[in-house]
Design goal:
Elements: H1 16-37, H2 49-62, E1 71-78, H3 80-89, H4 96-101, E2 107-114, H5 126-133, E3 134-141, E4 146-151, E5 158-160, H6 165-176, E6 184-187, E7 196-201, E8 212-218, E9 226-235, H7 249-276, H8 282-306, H9 314-348, H10 354-361, H11 368-395, H12 417-445, H13 451-468, H14 479-500, H15 502-518, H16 527-553, H17 566-591, E10 598-599, E11 602-609, E12 617-625, E13 631-641, H18 645-662, H19 668-682, E14 689-697, E15 702-708, E16 714-717, E17 720-723, E18 744-747, E19 753-757, H20 774-783, H21 791-805, E20 814-821
Antiparallel strand pairs: 1-2, 2-3, 3-4, 4-9, 5-9, 6-7, 7-8, 8-9, 10-11, 11-20, 12-13, 13-14, 14-15, 15-18, 16-17, 16-19, 19-20
Helix pairs in contact: 1-11, 7-9, 8-9, 8-12, 9-12, 11-14, 11-15, 11-16, 12-13, 12-14, 12-15, 12-16, 13-14, 14-15, 15-16, 17-18, 18-19
């Protein structure tokens, strides 16, 4: 990522109670306007799922169907298009409350009954299930009135007599509960399949019953005194309702798929990058994965147990639960990777909300900042309710029951509706805020955009995510109207995250999401749904109570030590080590000659290339002057400490200090003899140091040299290169305490090239394992054009050759001093 241009702001932790008061005002606004847009407003004492199923089975029994061994599927249906058509046809433009009180079937129960399925197969929905195993299907209003009835392929409803007006009127009254005596009767011709439609139509508009009732029948080939009832339906509008605007099935599926792929790739790329950087809190990630997987699996199983599992054999249910567990695991992985990416980026940004989330992970909720975040979340939830209410009222839209899978009131038909709503709301709120709000905002913070542009872009991403993937509400508005509402909702949501923290954002969305679904439960007044409603209300109140106690009695986070993740400790240790290594490297290179001396008849240059950041090699040269201040000698030294890295570097630095203390007063042999006992005493017993100390007399060009186990110098004269012979003893420094080193002298001539080097040069190794060795090095120097080049160019040429030969991976520290005798 590019360098961030972000000024981390401390989150606001004070307005918890004040925002809660404002939130109450928002909820009051929602409740005051609710009657104008809530699709469920006005419904009271609606049939529960069990009562609806019993009513459907009783109706089927009256028609002569066998209902003792059938399985029943009960789902909710909603007809907003029917409501809009009723508003158009009925006088006074009735509200949802008025229509529901008249028990017009804009919502109700869709009951399907059939035999069990014993072979595994894909069941895409209730229509697919009914086509495979359905015996009959009935739609009921909230008060139990029959809206439609149809038989499946394996069921026959045999009615005695002819399908004339008196017989059908009697059938409608005795079985379906409609008095059709004042309706106009119409008989249509039979179609090619022998089916015939009979219609009863009312001649006036109003609320006095269905506008039209239709019977679709067929006739058995062997008996003309009976007929088969295929379908019954009651229509309450004169015209067919116009479908509502919205995505087509293809575009809806495509947009959802593309959005999921986009966010999944974004989360995966960010989290994998952070994992490879070592910035991952494994315990938290595993907890997120496990808890989300379990919650998602439980939510799916609760729904399926209350619905489709009634149609399946136990063996098929076991297979399906395994597939549900796999899909829940993928959801858990999505959440875990999203959290990894979010938290690691938030810590890099030094976000002020990290101490709060750390307290939550410690289950230390009795902290003032945690409580303030929770209460502020309730305040923002009130804003969402007010925004939604004002938007729906302004656009004259309906608030329809909605869940995350675009199915009407999915949780209401679950085995435990209150628990299902809680699980769904918690999952959606946590993952949506972390992955689609918090993570996206954190990523944007690493750009060079200004703060206002970051906020706007974050709001736009959040709005698109709400609109396509995780809508908390549904309406009958156009796509543009729905997106505008989602965009307005995203403004306080992103502000809540940015200035009050992720706790406030998650709590606010959870309360908003669960609160809207609570409206689907309160229409039932039986004991089961009452307990489920009370459970959900308790779940919504509990965080508020906890936040209130924390704000009033909790301590400040400043009173406890801050949490540092294990990976942060590792990173800090690594950074300290790198800093120490950089200091050591700088110290070592500062001891090397800053520049080559400018001397008559001598061209001097040297270099040092460590195999690691620091190394055990050292070289130095300095000019020694006579009593008059005239340059008299060039003193030089080269050191190679056994080993590599930091320890070798420290020993090299220590040795350099000893050399510098004596090199200007003693002969080369005396220098080595005097410092050797100190090195034996102060260095590790397994450490030894090879070294050469020499003087070049500037008057007669005599080289006086003493050697302590170091590589022999090379002398190139007249195009021939030879190694100089070195006197005994050849023990390295630090090996034996008492060693008397000796000097040797060599007379240098004009044009000579003298090379002092460490063993990294002959021990250089190619990627194939081929070593340079001393002979190959000698031949290379012999063929090297040194006559016209200065020492600096010769050093650069040798350095380039060795690096290329070893593929820039030096086997050992490499040091070289090049001295060229000039005219």
């Amino acid at each position: 990522m590019p360098q961030r241009a972000f000024n981390p702001a401390r989150i606001i932790d004070r307005p918890g109670l004040q925002f809660s008061y404002l939130g109450v005002i928002g909820i009051v606004v929602f409740l005051l306007l609710r009657s104008s847009f809530d699709f469920y407003m006005g419904i009271s004492e609606a049939l529960n799922k069990q009562e609806a199923a019993e009513t459907a089975l009783t109706t089927a029994a009256r028609l002569g169907l066998q209902t003792d061994t059938v399985s029943v599927l009960a789902l909710r249906f909603h007809e907003p298009a029917l409501f809009r058509q009723l508003q158009h046809e009925l006088p006074g433009t009735p509200s949802p409350q008025q229509v529901n009180r008249s028990d017009l079937p804009i919502s109700g129960w869709d009951i399907g009954a059939g035999r069990k399925i014993e072979e595994p197969g894909l069941i895409a929905g209730p229509d697919n299930l009914f086509s495979q195993s359905g015996l009959f299907r009935i739609r009921l209003s909230n008060q139990g009135n029959i809206i439609s009835f149809e038989t499946g392929n394996d069921a026959q409803v045999v009615i005695g007599g002819r399908p004339d007006a008196p017989g059908l009127i009697s059938l409608a009254d005795s079985v379906f509960g409609y008095n059709l005596s004042n309706y106009l009767f119409t008989e249509e011709e039979k179609d090619r399949e022998g089916r015939q439609r009979f219609t009863f139509e009312r001649g006036f508009a109003g609320l006095g019953g269905p506008h039209k009732v239709t019977f679709n029948v067929s006739f058995p080939a062997d008996n003309t005194e009976h007929f088969l009832l295929k379908q019954f339906s009651a229509s309450f509008t004169a015209e067919k309702p116009v479908p509502l605007p919205g995505f087509g099935q293809f575009w809806q599926s495509t947009s959802i798929m593309l959005s999921v792929v986009f966010f999944a790739l974004l989360i995966l790329a960010t989290s994998v990058r952070q994992i490879f950087r070592g910035r991952m809190e494994w315990k938290r990630s595993l907890f997120i994965f496990g808890s989300v997987t379990f919650a998602q699996y439980l939510w799916q199983v609760l729904y399926l147990t209350g619905t489709f599992y009634a149609f399946f054999d136990v063996s098929i249910i076991a297979i399906d639960q395994l597939s549900q567990l796999i899909s829940a695991s993928l959801y858990g992985l999505y959440a875990a990777f999203a959290y990894v990416a979010w938290e690691s980026l938030a810590r890099e940004l030094k976000s002020g909300q990290i101490p709060v989330i750390d307290a939550v992970w410690r289950f230390d909720f009795m902290k003032h900042e945690v409580g303030a975040g929770i209460l502020t979340g309730y305040g923002f939830a009130g804003f969402y309710f007010a925004i939604l209410a004002l938007s729906l009222y302004s656009f004259n839209l309906l608030l329809l029951p909605q869940d995350s899978l675009l199915e009407a009131s999915r949780e209401v038909v679950s085995s435990a509706p209150g628990l299902s709503i809680f699980l769904n709301s918690w999952l959606v709120s946590m993952i949506f805020v972390i992955a689609h709000v918090g993570l996206c905002y954190n990523i944007i913070c690493f750009t060079t955009l200004g703060e206002n542009l970051r906020m706007l872009l974050s709001m736009l991403i959040a709005a698109l995510s709400i609109f396509v993937l995780l809508p908390p509400f549904s309406s009958d508005g156009s796509l543009l109207q729905t997106f505008i509402i989602c965009l307005i909702l995203s403004i306080p949501l992103v502000l809540a995250y940015r200035y009050f923290g992720i706790v406030s954002a998650i709590i606010s969305w959870f309360v908003f999401f669960a609160g809207l679904r609570l409206l689907s439960l309160i229409i039932f007044d039986d004991i089961f749904y009452t307990w489920q409603t009370l459970f959900l209300i308790g779940v919504l109140i509990a965080p508020f109570a906890l936040g209130l106690v924390s704000v009033l009695y909790g301590n400040k986070l400043s009173t406890v030590s801050s949490y540092v993740p294990a990976y942060e400790e590792t990173i800090q240790k690594r950074l300290r080590s790198e800093k120490e290594l950089a200091i050591a490297k700088e110290s070592q290179f500062n001891l090397l000659p800053a520049k080559a001396p400018e001397l008559p008849r001598l061209d001097v240059f040297g270099f040092f290339s460590p195999s690691y950041e620091v190394g055990g090699d050292f070289y130095d040269y300095q000019v020694l002057s006579d009593a008059s201040g005239k340059p008299e000698k060039l003193a030089l030294s080269i050191v190679d400490v056994s080993g590599k890295g930091m320890q070798a570097a420290f020993n090299a630095i220590f040795t350099s200090g000893l050399l510098l203390s004596r090199i200007s007063t003693d002969s080369p042999a005396e220098v080595l003899t005097q410092i050797n006992p100190t090195l034996c005493k102060k260095t590790d017993p397994h450490t030894f140091i090879t070294c050469q100390v020499g003087y070049i007399n500037l008057n007669d060009l005599t080289l006086e040299l003493s050697n302590a186990g170091h590589c022999p110098p090379m002398l190139k004269r007249n195009g021939k290169c030879e190694y100089l012979s070195l006197p005994a003893p050849r023990f390295p420094l630090g090996f034996i305490p008492k060693v008397q080193y000796t000097n040797t002298q060599t007379r240098l001539e004009e044009g000579d090239l003298l090379l002092f080097y460490s063993d990294g040069l002959p021990e250089a190794q190619s990627p194939t394992g081929d070593r340079m060795d001393f002979e190959r090095l000698r031949l290379y120097i012999e063929t090297l054009d040194t006559g016209t080049k200065k020492s600096a160019a010769i050093c650069e040429e040798i350095k380039r050759f060795i690096l290329t030969f070893s593929n820039y991976e030096l086997a050992d520290d490499t040091t070289l001093i090049c001295i060229k005798i000039t005219a």
